[in-house]
Amino acid sequence: MSLLHRSVFHRREKNKKSHDRSLPPRQILPVSSIQAGAHGGQISDLVVDRLKRNDPELTRLTLDRALDCYVRRSFKELLEAFCGNAMVQAVHLGPYFYGSLTDAQLADVFKAMGALFVNLEVLTIGTLERTYTAIPGASLGQLVKSAHKLNILRVERFVSVSNDDLQMLANCFKRHPSLQRISIPFLHYEGGEEPQNMDPLFTAIATLPKLESLQIGLSPPCYDQLHEYSLCSLSTFALSSIITSKTLTWFALHHFDLSDVHVMAMATSLASDSSRLRILDLPGNRKVTTLGWQSLLSALQQNCYLETIELYAPREAQSTRRAVYVHLRLNRNGRRLALRDELISKREWLDTIGNSYSNDLLAVYVLLRDNPSICCP
Question: Phi/psi at 86 (nearest 5 deg)?
Answer without folding.
Answer: -130, 15
